[in-house]
Every structure is written in structure tokens, then in C-alpha cells.
Task: structure prediction
Amino acid sequence: MPVEPRPSPWAFPPASAWPADDDVVAMGADLEPGTLLAAYRQGLFPMPSGPRRRDPMAWFSPVERGVLPLDGLRVTRSLRKSVGRFEVRVDTAFVDVVHACADPRRPGGWISETILAAYTRLFDLGWAHSVEAWRDGRLVGGLYGVAVGGLFAGESMFHHERDASKVALLGLVDRLRDEHAEERLLDVQWLTPHLESLGAVAIDRADYLARLPAALALPEPRWSSPRWSSPR
Result:
């Protein structure tokens, strides 16, 4: 079971005070576990506001929020064939996954050592998870995010071999598909063409916030379960 950290000394503004046309709803605070969990429970997530370490943290709640319906994941014929090439593991290489996602050669990179340290603390407390694709003993793809009840907030993903990150996503969705699947919330932050091709959709901020409390109240998925079903 995850360990609840000390409460944050920071208070985020209520949703009623958020700007209606801006994804950034707050600035500042810290990245302590209690602050991060308070943010996710309120529908927020952090990203640096600038490249310098002294730049304040920005807290986002996208006006149009990307989510991946668990029954809407698209599995192409080629992806279905790729599943057998990889071994899917959970939480065996969290730091390595985040490091790979933070590769400075990737365009738009934002994951700093500060972010890595913060999410590693969440991982140590049982709130953050990695889903990994391995081949021939090598980590070749994966994703990481934060799980609070029935919310999984995806942060980033990477691949070193074709379809490796997609197979990791299949592994994640498989673990979220249980008796509570209809109420679980797989948050992908923003809808990108890549995520849209996999079945992600955009919903209004108000819709996301309305669904969030029911998701948070659910039990966590069975992360250690060896479940793996054929992709649908």
C-alpha cells in the first residue's frame, strides 16, 4: 500500500478561481510528495516554467484534457504482432525509465534532475509506477506516471525499438482493466496526434474534474499482478 506523506504546506487555488482559457492555473510551491499528491488529487500536474533551476514551477490543468478510455485503446495488426517480441514488467526500472524519458536529445524535453528526484520519492512511497518493455534483457521502452486510487496520470514514455512504448501502454491498460475499469481515469495530459492514433480523446476541463473524485475513491489496480491478456 502507498505511504501517505506529510501534508503540503501549500494550498492550490480552487478550480472556481482558475482562468477559463489558460492551461496554467498556479505557479510556485515545491515538489515534495505531499504537494504533488495534493496537486494530482485536485486535477493538476507540474512542469517547469523555464529552463533555469530558479524558475518557478508551473501547475497545469489543461482546458482540453487528454484521456485514454480503457475500452478505446486501438491495437493495430502490426502492434498486435509486436506484443510477443517484448516482456512487460512493472516497477523494476523506474529511475531508468525516467532517465530515458528525460533524454536531452528528445525535442521539448522538460524532465530535469529535480523532477527525477521528486518522482523517485513518490515511487519509493508507492505512488509512482513504471511499466516497461524489455527485450533480450534490455530495457527498450516504457512509461511512468502517478497512481492515486483509480487515477493513473501518465507523465512520459519512450522507446528505443519500434512499438516498445506502445506495448508498455498495452501492459498498463491491461492492469487497469478490472471490475472498476469504467470509472478508472487514464490521464495523458494533452491530446497529441500520436496519442489520438492510440485512441486517446480530449475532454473539457470541467468533465475531467467531474470524473476525478469517483476515480480517486477507487482501489488501486493490482500492480504486481502477472496478468497479461491478448490485446483487444
